[in-house]
Amino acid sequence: MQREHRGSGLRLGAVRLRTDAYTQYAVTYRSDGLTISGIMNVPRGEGPFPALVLAHGYIDPDVYTTGRGLAREQDRLARAGYVVLHTDYRNHAGSDDDPDNDVNLRLGYTEDVIAAVLALRSAARPDIDDDRIGLLGRSMGGGVVYNTLVVAPGLVAAAVVFAPVSSRPEENIDRFQRPEGDPVVEEIEAAHGTPEENPEFWRQVSPVTYVDRVTEPLLIHHGTADDTCPLAWSRRTAAAFEAAGKDVELRTYAGEGHTFGPRWPNAMDATLAFFERHLR
């Protein structure tokens, strides 16, 4: 929150895919001194188009390939007339490495999402309406979206998250990393202390601490049968936004798990209607 974030140098590379509705390009952009890779879907037809930055969930960087994640959403949103920039994040695919990212609670991913928006805005492309940009994230990427909303209020027009992680990082560590014996946990606690040893650090690194800063409307989708990210996490985060007087809506889906199945089309219809209200 105290840093000045920079994003620029959006470059379109090779065409990866052509469909009847959009063309997909490999892209790179600059994020606070690092080069970040990703993909961008550009709709056919007359622009400028509103744009969305997509923040994907956790995929092991050792197996991750560029643009992997949110594939259904990438296609559906581009077909609905949005430029879709899916960031790979640092340490993924063709992006530069940041060796301190994990011990710093992966906050670099938030920097990369902020930079993606700034890169879209500074590209001055006739097919991008830089006044109409939103965010969409799922799972870990939902947490990245929470961070972005509190770190850079006013950056975008609206945000949507699917099955997001907790807005309290220590809960994510306890659920996903500690049970697996991830050695990074020991490094994190050596650098910052445990929540018991250094509660102020953990309070300050939690986006829910700063919901009063948020200026954008937020839509949260969560399945009642999600056994990866408990629905209770989203209920508590939504309650914090509501208590701060923010524009938040939590939609729950009976029987849906973490990845969404039969109700995914309904969730996307609601997502498109939400973006239509706030970005069109």
From TrEMBL:
<dbReference type="GO" id="GO:0052689">
    <property type="term" value="F:carboxylic ester hydrolase activity"/>
</dbReference>
<dbReference type="Pfam" id="PF00326">
    <property type="entry name" value="Peptidase_S9"/>
</dbReference>
<dbReference type="InterPro" id="IPR029058">
    <property type="entry name" value="AB_hydrolase_fold"/>
</dbReference>
<feature type="domain" description="Peptidase S9 prolyl oligopeptidase catalytic">
    <location>
        <begin position="76"/>
        <end position="279"/>
    </location>
</feature>
<dbReference type="GO" id="GO:0006508">
    <property type="term" value="P:proteolysis"/>
</dbReference>
<dbReference type="GO" id="GO:0008236">
    <property type="term" value="F:serine-type peptidase activity"/>
</dbReference>
<dbReference type="InterPro" id="IPR001375">
    <property type="entry name" value="Peptidase_S9_cat"/>
</dbReference>
<protein>
    <submittedName>
        <fullName>Peptidase S9</fullName>
    </submittedName>
</protein>
<dbReference type="InterPro" id="IPR050261">
    <property type="entry name" value="FrsA_esterase"/>
</dbReference>
<keyword id="KW-0378">Hydrolase</keyword>
<comment type="similarity">
    <text>Belongs to the AB hydrolase superfamily.</text>
</comment>
